[in-house]
Amino acid sequence: MMSVSLDEEVTRSPLPRLLVATISCLAIGVGLYLGTAATHSPSQRLSVQPLVRPVPPLPQAAGAPHTAPNGFRLANFRAAPERSLQTASKEPFPLPYQTPAGTSQASPVWSPVGKLAILGTLGLALGAIAAWWNSAVNRQSGELAMLTTTGQSTSKAGSKKENTSGKSVPKGEVWEVDFCSRPLVDARGKRVWEIMICNPERTFEFAQYIPNNKVNSQTLKIAVDKLLEQKGAERPTSIRFFRGQMTTIITKAFRELNLKVAPSRRCFTMMNWLEERMIEVYQQDPRFDANISLAGSLRGPVNVPPKKLPDALRGETWDFVQLPLSMVLEETKPVLAGKTFGSSFDLKNAGCGDMSPDTMIPGIVVFSRRGKALAAWTASLEIAAVTVDENLKSVLLETGFNDKWFYGAWADKSLVAEGKKWEQAKLQTRGLHFMAVQEKDGGEVDGFWLLMKRDAPEV
């Protein structure tokens, strides 16, 4: 089979594909028009009713300034027997075609002319699509074979460490992805790149070396396509990645596969896996070069100034609190069950699996009279961490790659010491902390986020 290079595929004109799609759509449209025209008289046609489902607006922000109650206390959460959230209406979904009130619905009578018109045009359209699809599959097969050969010949020493764990079949709704250069130099003196994909539970792992002249979105897309073609592969619903410099390539590849991409620093499993591979794989590879292990590795988010928090995300008061790890994990159970807004992660794969259940975990609680609405809006963010900035006398909410938001502030200088104490407690828990949203002190928890502040890996 003749293979086609990735560069040729990228530069190939899309006009033939567009022409086939246009002709097919026109043919189907003409056939349906002729068929319906020959089938129904004006008095027999059904009227189409618009499918409009009004969405009630969320409550407006209270607008009250943040206040900072004194005290670094134990959070007073009351575990409700049932955590109810606003759910979608259970009314039956309206039919797309309805007859006007007071009229009878006539049964359609398909004439021979209508049948022939529709069947003929559908046959022409399907034939054109099948011809185009066969050509596309042949090109794709050649590219996949070329990519596999390239990856296998990249490293004999490192190939033993790639996908030998029996975890190569994609599992889970969330993937963590990294596409970056490694501290390895090939025979041409160029740095070796690598595609790595896993799920947060690490029951799925994939690693593939890539030469530096194949670093593009098409290479990543082909590799992911091949993964999803495996028997038993589960298609993810969200893709996380933490290197902002690779946004264009990663976003383009997964969006072409109709997969949602979420820039996030919550790739804790991927970060730990990278640190493991640095010791167990890269440093054992004969191509390893310690002089470039840190240089040009696209590390970490770039510092940016905090922004003003949108009104929909404003609470009314907040407080520094702490909870034993056992209680923190208890609060994450409704989140994992989908009964409460928020997010969590596996402590073991994040490097915190050996922590004692009695370890006191620092956190912040935000109170609001519109707790459920505030929790719902907050859940739309990819929250990474909560930090205290002593110079700005503010609590900052960190999201995405490098976004920061003013989340709470204080005028009392005495709270500077409390903020410092809270940050010190976070260091003692390896960056582990939490954020909760409640309507009132001691009431039901409307949102709970398990968070972790950690640096990007040095690879």
Compact overview of the structure:
This protein has 459 residues and is an alpha/beta fold.
What count of helical segments does DSSP give? 9
User: Into which percentage range does the β-strand content fall?
Assistant: 15-25%
Element pattern in H and E = HHEHEEEHEHEHEHEEHEEEHEE
* Ends distance: 38 Å
Query: Which spans have pLDDT < 50 for at least 5 consecutive residues?
Result: 1-15, 35-72, 77-110, 139-164
> What is the percent of helical residues?
25-40%
Largest sheet, in brief, is: 6 strands, mixed
Structural class: alpha/beta
Overall mean pLDDT score? 74
| Rg result | 28 Å
Count of individual beta strands: 14
Shape: globular
Instruction: Order the strands across the largest sheet as they lie in space.
Output: 1-7-9-13-14-8
What does this 3D model show about the protein?
The structure is a single chain. The protein is 31% helix and 19% strand. It has 9 helices and 14 strands. It has helices spanning 6-11, 15-39, 112-154, 217-228, 247-255, 268-280, 325-336, 371-378, 414-428, and strands spanning 73-74, 174-185, 191-198, 205-210, 238-241, 261-263, 317-324, 341-343, 360-367, 383-389, 394-399, 403-409, 432-438, 445-452. The strands form 3 sheets. A 6-stranded mixed sheet has the order 1-7-9-13-14-8, with helices on both faces. Strand 5, helix 5 (247-255) and strand 6 (261-263) form a beta-alpha-beta unit. Helix 4 (217-228) packs across helix 5. It is globular and about 70 Å long.
